[in-house]
C-alpha cells in the first residue's frame, strides 16, 4: 500500500528529446516515474510537462509541489525560461502554465543546476559545502554549490560553463559564439574526437570501428567506452584527450571558485574512472599555483540519471515548505 503521508514532490527533467518525471520522497527516493517524448511543437511542450506531472500524481494524495528542470536559461524568479534553443522557447512562462494545469505550486530551474543540487544533497557532493558539478553530456553544463547554497547569480543564469570561450576563433557553437568549451569537453565533443581520430588512422581504430558499422561516422560514444574497458589503446587515447580538456575545465573553474569537490556528471561521468582519472591528472597539472594549493577531490556522479528529477523535486519541496530561504539561493 502507498503511504499517503510521506509528503511527495514531483521532479521533472525536461530535455530536447524526453520528459522524465518522478514523485520523490523526502529521502530522495523516486517512488514512481513516467517518461514521455518531448513534443516537436514548442507550443505543446509545457502542456506535455503538465501531463507528465498528472500521470505521476495519479493515485497519490499528498503531492505538494512540482520542480521543473529545463534545459535553458531560467530567470531569477525561477518562473520563466528566457531562452532554450533545444526546446524552441523564448520567454516561456512555464511556471504559470504548469501551475494552472495542475493546481500545484511550481518552481523552474536550469536542468544542470537541478542535477547538481540532486548530486549535492544525495550523491557525490555529500559531506561538502562547496561543490562544482560539470555535466558533460550532449552539451556541457554545470552547477555551483557555494557554502551549501545553489549559486545562481544575480539574474539566475550562473553556471553556464559550456559557453565560456576557451579557444579564440575556435569551433562554432550553437550559442552563436566560436570556441566555447562545450565544443571541446562535452560528451558530443568526445564522440566527434573519436570519429576524427578514426578517420585519420582507421587501422589503429580498427577494434573500435568493428563495434559499430565499420565507418568513423558510425562510431558512437558507447563503442569507445566498451573498447577502452577492454584496454584498447586507441579508445584509451580518446579518453586521455577528452580528459585533458575536461581537466582544463575543472582547473579553470577551481581557480575562480575554489570548491572542495569537483563532480563529473553526464554521459562522460557515467564512464567512471575512464574519464575521472585523466581529468584529475589534467586538472592537477593545469591548476595555477598547484603545489601551493589544496587540490579539490575529483569524483564522478553517483546519483546518475535521476539527479535532475531528485534535485528539481527537492527544490520544489524547499520552495513549498520554506519559500526558498537564503540558505539555498
Task: Give a brief outline of the structure.
This protein has 329 residues and is of the alpha/beta class. The chain has helices at residues 42-57, 94-102, 111-122, 182-185, 187-200, 206-209, 221-229, 233-257, 266-269, 273-286, 307-322, and strands at residues 8-14, 18-24, 30-37, 63-70, 73-74, 81-84, 89-92, 106-110, 131-136, 140-146, 149-150, 261-265, 297-300. It contains 11 helices and 13 strands.
Protein architecture, described:
The protein has 329 residues and is α/β, with parallel strands linked by helices. The protein contains 11 helices and 13 strands. The strands form 3 sheets. The protein has a 5-stranded mixed sheet with strand order 3-2-1-4-8. The protein has a 5-stranded mixed sheet with strand order 11-10-9-12-13, sandwiched between helices. Strands 5-6-7 form a 3-stranded antiparallel sheet, with no helix packed on it. A hairpin with a 6-residue loop joins strand 5 and strand 6. Helix 5 runs antiparallel to helix 8 and helix 7 packs across helix 8. The longest helix has 25 residues.
Amino acid at each position: 500500500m502507498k503511504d499517503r503521508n510521506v509528503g511527495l514532490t514531483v521532479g521533472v527533467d525536461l530535455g530536447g528529446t524526453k520528459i522524465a518525471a518522478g514523485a520523490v520522497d523526502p529521502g530522495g527516493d523516486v517512488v514512481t516515474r513516467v517518461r514521455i517524448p518531448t513534443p516537436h511543437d514548442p507550443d505543446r511542450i509545457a502542456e506535455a510537462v503538465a501531463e507528465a506531472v498528472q500521470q505521476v500524481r495519479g493515485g497519490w494524495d499528498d503531492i505538494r509541489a512540482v520542480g521543473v528542470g529545463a534545459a535553458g536559461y531560467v530567470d531569477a524568479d525561477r518562473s520563466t525560461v528566457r531562452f532554450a534553443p533545444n526546446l524552441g522557447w523564448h520567454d516561456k512562462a512555464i511556471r504559470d502554465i504548469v501551475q494552472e494545469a495542475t493546481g500545484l505550486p511550481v518552481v523552474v530551474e536550469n536542468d544542470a543546476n537541478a542535477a547538481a543540487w540532486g548530486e549535492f544533497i544525495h550523491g557525490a557532493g555529500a559531506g561538502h559545502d562547496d561543490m562544482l558539478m560539470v555535466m558533460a553530456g550532449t552539451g556541457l553544463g554545470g552547477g555551483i554549490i557555494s557554502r551549501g547554497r545553489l549559486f545562481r547569480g544575480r539574474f539566475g543564469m550562473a553556471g553556464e560553463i559550456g559557453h565560456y570561450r576557451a579557444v579564440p576563433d575556435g569551433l562554432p557553437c550553437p550559442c552563436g559564439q566560436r570556441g566555447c568549451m562545450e565544443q571541446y569537453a562535452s560528451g558530443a565533443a568526445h564522440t566527434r574526437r573519436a570519429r576524427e581520430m578514426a578517420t585519420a588512422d582507421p587501422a589503429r581504430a580498427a577494434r573500435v570501428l568493428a563495434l559499430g558499422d565499420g565507418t568513423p561516422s558510425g562510431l558512437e560514444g558507447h563503442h569507445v567506452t566498451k573498447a577502452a574497458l577492454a584496454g584498447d589503446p586507441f579508445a584509451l587515447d580518446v579518453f586521455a584527450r577528452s580528459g585533458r580538456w575536461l581537466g582544463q575545465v575543472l582547473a579553470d573553474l577551481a581557480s575562480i571558485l575554489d570548491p572542495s569537490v569537483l563532480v563529473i556528471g553526464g554521459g562522460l561521468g557515467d564512464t567512471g574512472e575512464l574519464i575521472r582519472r585523466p581529468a584529475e591528472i589534467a586538472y592537477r597539472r593545469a591548476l595555477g599555483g598547484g603545489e601551493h594549493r589544496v587540490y579539490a577531490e575529483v569524483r564522478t556522479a553517483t546519483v546518475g540519471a535521476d539527479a535532475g528529477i531528485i534535485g528539481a523535486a527537492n527544490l520544489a519541496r524547499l520552495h513549498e515548505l520554506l519559500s526558498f530561504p537564503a540558505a539555498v539561493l
